[in-house]
Amino acid sequence: MINTQFFEDLSSRIREITKSSPAADMEKNLRALLQGAFTKLELVSREEFDVQADLLRRTRQKLELLEAKQAELEDLLQKNNK
Questions:
Q1: What share of the chain is helix, strand, coil (3-state, %, to 5)?
Q2: Of the candidates 15, 50, 67, 75, which lies 20 to 30 Å from 58 by C-alpha distance?
């Protein structure tokens, strides 16, 4: 999923700012709000993206091979039907 380091850094900065203020609960609420917003965006990690891109690349290669084989078989079938 999403790299939580970004959230940790953001949370730490917000915590430092709000330490002495009466809005101490604001950090917790803001963190939950940001996590909810990022979850709705359905973001994926770079690693997961790369895995899916590689899978798609291999699938396309297999599809191209199958299409070539199908064309070859159709040509053979047409020659046999003549």
A1: 80, 0, 20
A2: 75
Q: Give the residue among 3, 29, 35 at the shortest CA–CA distance from 14.
A: 29
According to the model, what pLDDT value does residue 20 have?
67
Domain ranges of the chain: 1-43, 45-82
* pLDDT tens-place string over residues 34-77: 888 878 888 788 999 999 999 999 999 999 999 999 999 999 99
Assign residue 2 a region: left if phi > 0, alpha if psi is -120 to 50, beta otherwise?
Answer: beta
C-alpha span between 82 and 79 (Å, rounded) = 5
Cβ proximity of 18 and 59 under 8 Å:
no
Q: Is the pTM of this model over 0.70?
A: no
